Amino acid sequence: EKLIKKPPHSQPSPWLWAASKGAARTKLWNEVSGFVDVYNARFGVYDTLAILPCWHLHPVVVEEVTALMLSWRSSHYGHKVPTIDPNYWLQNFLYPTIARIRSEPWGQTRCSTNSHEDMAKSLAPRRDMEAFAAHIEKDVAAHPPADLDPSPAE
Predict the structure, then answer these.
(1) For 5, phi and psi rounded to 5 degrees?
(2) Cα–Cα distance measured from residue 17 to residue 38, given in angstroms and rounded to the nearest whole number
(3) CA nearest 16: which of 25, 8, 7?
(4) pTM for the model
(5) Spatial CA neighbour of 99 closest among 60, 65, 49
């Protein structure tokens, strides 16, 4: 038997923004931007369905649009016979995603075709690192390592 050197899911996918660096990140930006262009040419003619031009300035919108692109590919590529996948994509991915992008405070609620307002910076929680370190210290002290000796106490 041949042993697998690494578990199959040990590497992040090329679409994981948190792990994307350098040339791979540039490729990802171009890939997602191309999808937005194709999408907006078809759906963006209707204001309520458009992915607004400032999409790339909203980190959560970038994640949403990336996921939308991947689900679109999955439903539209590689099929040799008709499927319900494109309809499923419209109903279960496209419309709910666009609704979130256009209605959530992290999205494009205050943006328009000609303007951008970033709500995310004002909403981002800031962790007090000193208070966090004190909490960890207190929690660890309250949960000392267990005595691994299974013999009963005398």
Answers:
(1) -70, -35
(2) 21
(3) 25
(4) 0.74
(5) 49
